[in-house]
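Final report, results section. Input specification for complex C-07:
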Amino acid sequence: MHIPEGYLSPSTCLTLGAAMLPVWYRATAAVKTGLEAARAPFLAMGAVFSFLIMMFNIPIPDGTTAHAAGGVLLAIVLGPWPAVIAVSVALLIQALFFGDGGVLAFGANAFNLAFIMPFAGYHTYRLLAGGSPPASRRRLIAAGLGAYVGLNLGALAAAIEFGLQPLLFTAADGTPLYCPYGLEVAIPAMLIPHLTLAGVAEATVTALALKYILKTSPDIVAAGDGR
Amino acid sequence: MRRYWLIILAMILLTPLGLLADGTAWGEWGPEDLTEKLGFVPSGIEQAATWWRALFPDYGISGLGETAGYIVSALLGAAFAYLATVAYLKTLARPK
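Structure output:
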């Protein structure tokens, strides 16, 4: 769901980029005060993890591909604000060096994958995990479901951004200037692969990775999240 | 910490599995794919397509095969993401 260059109007890119500024600001403040020095190296590892997991494309039967993004696992382990930074770094590197996601669209992609996804997923996880003990089955299922919800809400946000383009921006003769597909095409096209294969992959990776981390080094998990 | 870096290394080596998925993600088509699908390229996409030249487009390295290029891209991307985050953390740690 990396929105390439030119699929969103410059005004859409600018709006979503502007929306991300206070998010990055707040995330930076949270990293500064809330991420203890001993856990800071895991922020860099989180950015690397997010970058890499997005390279594992999953084939979708309609001939397209999709992938997990790791944002909810990072939100659970490091906290949702540090996750904003880690996923944003991954997206920035992807856009600048690998042409995956537009450079102008970086704000939009960060909004979907580095903001909506970790926060939606994290709060779903907290709600479902309740006060369950660390590494309990309920907590791990909550993490998986949170990851599923987070990825799909991120995909939905991307679909809405894509789908609004032909409604808002057309040439005088009605030809679309940017993404040519409206909401009625973009929403199912984005959600079906993520509700089925990519969401399940994201949920599985998140639950298994959290289980492993809670077992081997629970001290890197944010306080209150199973430590 | 070390065990996690070993997992990251394993991920880097396994990234070519992501190449088994043939095709393009929805909404990530290049100009050629769009011409094929629509018969034209929306002008905004055409104009924007070339202003930024990524060094390693589609995680490929010129001169290397697809698989080797993908692994080297994973390694480079991992290094860049690591260094960028460390640089970000360094700027925060500076005395106010």
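The radius of gyration of chain B is 18 Å. Chain B touches chain A through 56 residues (CB under 8 Å). This concludes the modelling results for the funded period.
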